[in-house]
Write a structure and sequence with these properties.
Elements (H helix, E strand, L loop, with lengths): L4 H8 L5 H12 L1 H4 L4 H7 L4 H10 L5 H12 L19 H22 L2 H13 L3 E4 L3 H15 L4 E3 L3 H8 L7 E5 L6 H12 L3 E7 L4 H5 L2 E5 L11 H21 L1 H15 L3
Parallel strand pairs: 1-2, 1-3, 3-4, 4-5
Length: 282
């Protein structure tokens, strides 16, 4: 049985080339982040090529990058006291009782981690920026897109101007129309989704204020943001539906929404009441 991936990397460190040592150092400093990067993204983070990453993986005893990530995941999640599975919480013996227990416990851990990672000062600043902005344009794809849509619905309900488009290309096009006084709010768990990086770049070109909701740790999106709302890194390398990251993001949106409402609660209540009266007819 081979040793842990992190231990093996440390043992090989003195025998690595300069490029391999850069890869090793990045992995040792941010092992959980690596689990959410594909081979091209890891190579970019280490200023090298995908081929160099493959050579590094083979040098330390993995058959390739996928094998290495599975090996690394066992190290990263050992402290979670959970069985490592290639798909989150799923196997042939799963019962409803076990699914309820496992998921509720995982959600509790996610909420505790969110409380530790989300800065109250950042939430306040984000709320103030959205309240002062003539337009808050929301961006997100996949599970993060569902979170962006939820925030858009909430802001619209209390009369704050916002927009969200489900099509990724439409989002990038919309980013090109941002103005300096507008706010771009990008949601990306990994902070490395190429489409969201392009949207961020377009927003910055136009001088818009950029808020990023992304997982803790360095990423391309974080490097571009004026303000970051940190979501804890809670997902495994293989995810059935990004459950925990989505739950953490939705909770962060609810927190932000409550703070926004608190700044002008009377006006917000009136707006919600008007919305309820109009929609309850149907």
């Amino acid at each position: 049985m081979r040793s842990g991936a992190l231990q093996t990397i440390s043992e090989h460190n003195t025998r690595l080339t300069g490029t391999e040592r850069r890869i090793a150092d990045f992995i040792l400093n941010a092992p959980q982040k690596v689990l959410h990067l594909n081979i091209t993204e890891l190579a970019r983070q280490c200023s090298t090529s995908a081929a160099a990453v493959v050579r590094f993986c083979r040098r330390i005893g993995a058959s390739g990058y996928s094998d290495f990530k599975l090996w690394l995941a066992k190290d990263v999640y050992q402290g979670w006291n959970e069985k490592f599975l290639p798909d989150l919480g799923l196997d042939s013996s799963t019962t409803a009782v076990r699914a309820i227990t496992d998921m509720t416990e995982a959600v509790k851990r996610t909420m505790n981690a969110l409380a530790a990672s989300l800065s109250p000062e950042s939430v306040e600043k984000a709320a103030e920026r959205i309240l002062a902005s003539p337009m808050t344009m929301l961006f997100g794809v996949g599970a993060s897109g569902l979170v962006a849509a939820d925030l858009h619905q909430k802001l619209s309900r209390i009369g704050l101007p916002s927009s969200y488009l489900y099509d990724t290309h439409a989002q990038i096009s919309a980013a090109c129309s941002l103005r300096k006084e507008d706010t771009a709010f990008i949601i990306s768990y990994s902070g490395e989704t190429d489409a969201m990086i392009e949207a961020a770049d377009q927003a910055l070109l136009r001088g818009s204020f950029l808020i990023a909701m992304t997982m803790s740790g360095m990423s391309r999106l974080r490097a571009r943001a004026d303000l970051t709302l940190d979501i804890p890194a809670v997902e495994r390398v293989y995810r059935s539906a990004a459950e925990l990251s989505r739950i953490g993001q939705l909770a962060a949106v609810d927190i932000l929404y409550n703070v926004i409402i608190s700044h002008d609660i009377d006006r917000a209540i009136e707006a919600v009441e008007r919305s309820m009266q109009a929609t309850h007819r149907f």
